[in-house]
Amino acid sequence: MDNPAILEQPYITITNIIWSFDRETDQLQVLLVKRASNPYADYWALPETFMRAQESADEAALRLVKEKIGLTLSNYHTEQLATFTHNDRAPGERALSLAYMTFLPEMPPLKAGYGALDAHWFTFSATEAGQFSLTYRQLHFMTATSHSQHSYYKNFKIARGRDYLAFDHDWILKVACQRIKNKLNYQPNILLVLGHDFTLKEARTVYAAFFGIPVKAIDNSNFKKTHQHLFKEVGTTTRRQIGRPAKLYKLAQIEE
Amino acid sequence: MDNPAILEQPYITITNIIWSFDRETDQLQVLLVKRASNPYADYWALPETFMRAQESADEAALRLVKEKIGLTLSNYHTEQLATFTHNDRAPGERALSLAYMTFLPEMPPLKAGYGALDAHWFTFSATEAGQFSLTYRQLHFMTATSHSQHSYYKNFKIARGRDYLAFDHDWILKVACQRIKNKLNYQPNILLVLGHDFTLKEARTVYAAFFGIPVKAIDNSNFKKTHQHLFKEVGTTTRRQIGRPAKLYKLAQIEE
DNA sequence: TTTATTAAAGTATTAATTACTTATATTAGT
DNA sequence: ACTAATATAAGTAATTAATACTTTAATAAA
């Protein structure tokens, strides 16, 4: 091709933001692992892996899911988020990160495995002002507060404490939250964390989580009117509960 | 990190879709080059380069612009599109493509250079049905017609004639057109091909090009009402022309 | 059977979009 | 200098969509 001056190829890392939904607490969850080795040993981070010769990046992202939760799940949706290439994003080495998002239809138990010291589901929450955070017991991580990529990496070189995620993962998470929020009105794939079908209230719960508002702040009747073109009715819930049974919907279109 | 089983790293290619606007014909332009070397020697393709050790992918994308048009332009906007990683996208080798888009504020003359046999601005056009194509003299290339990534690559292995672009560049272009079209209503960065400021009519010309409809099909008054929150008034045009002088606008927000 | 609960369905108001009309600022021709 | 032609800004009425709120319906438990 153009120019043979490839001095050295950077490492290609696949980073996957794995989402699920806890039906006990009605809260969104994100999978974080505690890194075993440098750089950022002992830091919490998004699950990562190196790409292998015979697999595509999409396949590598799926492999990450399998490594952390086992092979039990049969259907989940993975989509590309963006690629992060800033020179300083990994200390002392050059590493590209192809970031993906996976939406799991349930919240399976985790195993650290493959060199990670620990793995946990962190509870996702947001403020009305647009800040996002992940919490597990006393551990609490904020996504980046910078508005632009440029301003984020400008201050990135400084040493970061243990209250930060490894690498630029706080920025990657911010980009992910932003993307999901943007797509809520035309392609809310995040709803796949609710499984194959869902009630309008469950859908509103997910929406409310991203806006940092209570579910009841979103009117069910109006929500149906403005979003029903995205959903397809597939029956009525059979789950025994008090009150009128809710109708079930699924996403009308999963494709890009 | 997780696993040392990296057999071999794939090539990392930067692909850049460079857009401009021809004020003579009021048509959008895309830069294509004729490849000098294999794979796909003699095929027309999007400009590509390998990433170098000391530059970020963003910088490599900008370098591509400089190589093709020289160093004359001072301001242009580049943004990431997506990363293409399918196993079969390059014959006999493994190559990732980090795809970018650059919007040039004018339409400078081109030089092939850096191993390309030829380089030209191709006129972009679309149909109302959502098909896109690039034309230069008797050369005519369609973007992919597949609706999904999966269906595109399913039929990709078959030998492709010279009426196709190299690699999966027809698919990359399709994704680009789709992305630009989606962003017209909230972040129309494509308007940067019009330069720092533009009239509403010029903006409508660009919109109409992506919808495959004539400019006059978009009402100027209504367009202003629905889009003025994206624009900021910066004066009145000084270009001598018949009729009432148009007001000038610029994009209110360039940032992601 | 009654009450509490939950969600669906309906209604009236408000806001946004669309189609269309009028007014204004300029150039070119007489 | 006046008039016609042109191009765009600005305004208006009708339609459509979004929002706030109310009523109806289906279930579980007392």
From TrEMBL, chains A, B:
<dbReference type="Pfam" id="PF21906">
    <property type="entry name" value="WHD_NrtR"/>
</dbReference>
<protein>
    <submittedName>
        <fullName>Nudix-related transcriptional regulator</fullName>
    </submittedName>
</protein>
<dbReference type="InterPro" id="IPR036390">
    <property type="entry name" value="WH_DNA-bd_sf"/>
</dbReference>
<dbReference type="InterPro" id="IPR054105">
    <property type="entry name" value="WHD_NrtR"/>
</dbReference>
<dbReference type="InterPro" id="IPR015797">
    <property type="entry name" value="NUDIX_hydrolase-like_dom_sf"/>
</dbReference>
<feature type="domain" description="Nudix hydrolase">
    <location>
        <begin position="11"/>
        <end position="158"/>
    </location>
</feature>
<dbReference type="Pfam" id="PF00293">
    <property type="entry name" value="NUDIX"/>
</dbReference>
<dbReference type="InterPro" id="IPR036388">
    <property type="entry name" value="WH-like_DNA-bd_sf"/>
</dbReference>
<dbReference type="InterPro" id="IPR000086">
    <property type="entry name" value="NUDIX_hydrolase_dom"/>
</dbReference>
